[in-house]
Design brief:
about 75% helix, elongated, 5 helices, mainly alpha, about 140 residues
Length: about 140
Amino acid sequence: MSDIEFDRDGPPYGAYLLWFMRAVAVLWMAKGIIHWCLILGIGHADPDRFLGMPVLTQTAVIFFAVFDLVAAVGLWMATTWGGVIWLIASGGYFIISLFRPEIFGRQYAMMTTIGVLIVLYVGLAYFASRERHHR
């Protein structure tokens, strides 16, 4: 198996990664705001709905309300820690949806989206890293 050759005319994976991270940051900012709306009873959420949830669900909602916004800021800034926090938050949401469906329900569309985004992120980060080392 031959090594992938990178030349100056090849695709700019670093730029692709930057724009991917910023697009995901916008999505994760919206996801974090949705969790905060649930906590604060803003919008269509009943103000007492959050307090009526099981403690485990309340804990998960608060965790993602904080982690999603921190991950969004880190992704927008295109920092390494932002990617790590996002991987923890998105992986955690995926695992909770898969193994503890009583918390958020089995959200197959969200689980698929998160899985695809994680694979894209890891792939782009890998190619951007190789591009940086082959200059």
